[in-house]
Amino acid sequence: MLFRRLSLRLSAGLIGSVLLVVAGCGGSGSSTQEGSGAGTADADAQQVYRWKLITTWPKNLPALGMGPERLADLLRVMSSGRLDIKVYGAGELVGAFEVFDAVAQGTSEMGHGAAYYWRGKIPVAAMFSTVPFGMNAQEMNGWLHYGGGMDLWRELYEPFGLVPFACGNSGVQMAGWFNREINSLADLQGLKMRIPGLGGEVLKRAGGVPVSLPGGEVFTALQTGAIDATEWVGPYNDLALGLYSAARYYYYPGWHEPGPTLEAIVNKKAWDSLPPDLQAMIQAATRMINEDMLSEFTARNNAALRTLVDEHAVELRKLPDDVVARLRELSTQVVAEMAESDPLARRIHDSYTEFALGVRDYHRISEQAYLDAR
Ligand code: CA
Description:
Layout: H1 2-8, H2 12-23, H3 28-34, H4 38-46, E1 49-55, H5 66-78, E2 83-88, H6 99-104, E3 110-113, H7 137-146, H8 149-157, E4 162-169, E5 176-178, E6 192-194, H9 197-205, E7 209-211, H10 218-223, E8 229-230, H11 235-241, E9 249-252, E10 261-267, H12 268-273, H13 276-312, E11 315-318, H14 321-338, H15 343-365, H16 367-373
Parallel strand pairs: 1-2, 1-3, 6-7, 6-8, 9-11
Antiparallel strand pairs: 3-10, 4-10, 5-8, 5-9
The structure holds calcium ion (CA).
């Protein structure tokens, strides 16, 4: 059933992408193929690649966790079973925050998560996930696929033996779940909050205490009072985690995650071992899941929000303007510092910010003007 649905979604546009990818896949896989006799080529076409895909998400979590599941299903169908990928939730093979290292070491061939989880190892990686007050999903996709972002991301992960792909996006998130009201900047002082990425650093500078926790541990930490607040995703995913029963106030807007890109990472040696048609399928399927997840969130967030408010008596609140203004100021500092760690980080920072400023100017008179006008 799922296969049928996914197959039907392979639009003409996506097939166009596949053709482009095949044309651009002149890597080692393709040269091996060219040098092979017909018998070897037949053997390549028969070979089954059985891979493990480890994720940072609880197994089968709606949307975020279903991205890698659908990716594996889609690749199995596209490849007629030649690429057979088994998906593992966080903690089944390795912990959520061990995914990057495990795929780099080849323990698993593939991983799914978010680049900001690796900020402790590669600070600038966070920019490939999301930047506070930065680009939204549509703009991130523009930068990654047509603005040079993807090339820089590959360059950043290359020394770790990893090949990254954009593979999912939630759209603008919610500011999160709070057990205390946020009426002024003073209310952020000492606030112990689960918030990853650059947003966590911004909260720290605003006087809060950012905590890093994988999704599977968020509910318990909030319920037991180990943390005062948490951000997670948005209504659809937050409803699935049951966060409404552990906190009273649900704040917006998601200043810290305006359209986070999720990543699929592939071990470079495993990638190089694939024939070019299977490489092209991974390129196309990750691109499809990148779009598919955003569509699912867009379709389901509103109904989930109504359930939260109407059935679970969640109090929806907007962060005060002065709090947002201060967080924006601090974000500017944090993002500027991204450029300082090394030359590649500077190139990534400069590419991101130049693209973001340009697209923002245009979107003022297009997307934003339209949203204000309708
Ligand atoms: Ca989040």
